[in-house]
Amino acid sequence: MLIVPSWYPTEERPNAGIFFKEQAIALQEQGLEVIVAYPEIHSIKELKKQKFKRGFYYNIEDGLETYRIKEYNFLPKIRRGSSIIYYLKLRNIFARLIKEGKKPDIIHAHSVLWGGWAAAKISKQHNIPLIITEHSSAFVRGLIKEYQKPFIREAFDQAKKVIAVGPSLEKELEKYTEREKIILIPNIVNTSLFKPNDDIQKSNKFRFFSLAFLTYNKGFDVLLKAFAKAFKGNREVELVIGGDGEERGNLEKLAVDLEVEKQVTFLGELSREQAAMEMQKCDAFVLASRFETFGVVFIEALACGKPIIATKCGGPEMIVEEYNGILVEVDNVIELSVAMKQVLKNFERYNKNIICTYCYQKFGKENVIRQISYIYQCIVQQ
Question: Which residues on adjacent β-strands are paired with residue 209?
Fold first, then answer.
């Protein structure tokens, strides 16, 4: 299996594309031979910083054979400049694989822009079956640009199967390829990292935890307003927010304006291990996203046995059930505040063991990898 991710963990961004990496590791654990090929393309603005040397890198990263080419986007004024360079560097990596006798049986790309598109060109040139798993919320948010659409269709036409990670994304992808080619398979949860921990030291307050990039799309402004409406002045309840991003300053100011700054803690960017620890420390997880194609953080919380509150934003609808949490409408401060109060009031009704057991069964690597492996087998046998 050759895994081609559109984005992937780097030294500067260790959490970028971490779900692609965890899935690749899970595939390898099931006995498949997996290689990752990643053209790591950086902005030309970073050239002055000289954080790395351009060129080819080969390493075993967490047990995965990984081929990288680190390069800058020397075509910044061309709107598809980075995709062109990505393809050229992927072609270079592939040539090296062929030279080393490592021609793959299947190419599995993550996200069509631009890993899937580049992989489709390699797939066509070398007659290797291609699968594309789509993750990008750009489809459900209406952010796909007109000039991108022909390249998306070109890549999907070349693919044997297109995997969507969520129901709203599955529906949107029908605009770009035939319905029969699309299959819904969720992301996996890393149950070796995200699991219950009864021994962890917890706060004596009821703690809501939220985790995401601090962007407008994640709805932290709505969450803060809902939290203030439900619990302002109640020192027995706290909200802890993990993650960093462009909205952090605005959100910290909003917490002050809402007079809940003493009840809200901003942790900043977290490692995967820190994220798991915060999931284990909290009582409930909440995220007020405006759009999600899936929402891995929700299943990570469930894997720790925590009830969740999510919005009907495209992905959580396939995750939230009556026994494990509450779904509310997008941008509805009142409904979210009521849901948070309900979870606090009825907290004892949520059974930790039932929550994590069902999460493992539905989103654990055994179930998800079995579905992906079945697709591989069908394609290889064609």
Answer: 240, 285
Q: Which residues contact 55 (CB under 8 A, 6 or more apart)?
A: 69, 70
What does the pLDDT look like over 69-125, one tens digit per residue? 999 888 888 888 889 999 999 999 999 999 999 999 999 999 999 999 999 999 999
Taken in order 6, 108, 29, 35, is the CA torsion positive or negative? negative
**pLDDT tens digits, residue range 175-229?**
999 999 999 999 999 999 999 998 998 889 999 999 999 999 999 999 999 999 9
Structure tokens at 249: 């300053």
> From residue 326, how far is each of 110, 198, 307, 312, 360 by CA, in Å?
30, 24, 8, 10, 19
Strand pairing category for 55-61 and 64-72: antiparallel
- pLDDT bucket at 53, cuts 50 / 70 / 90: confident
Is the pTM higher than 0.85? The answer reads: yes
For residue 376, the tally of other CB atoms under 10 A from its CB is 19
pLDDT of the residue at 216? 96
Q: Return d(Cα 271, Cα 277) in angstroms, integer.
A: 10
Count the alpha carbons within 13 Å of 143 in the hemisphere toward its beta carbon.
9
Averaged pLDDT for residues 57-61: 96
Q: Quote the radius of gyration of the chain (alpha carbons, Å).
A: 21
Decide: 287 and 301 in contact? Cβ < 8 Å: no
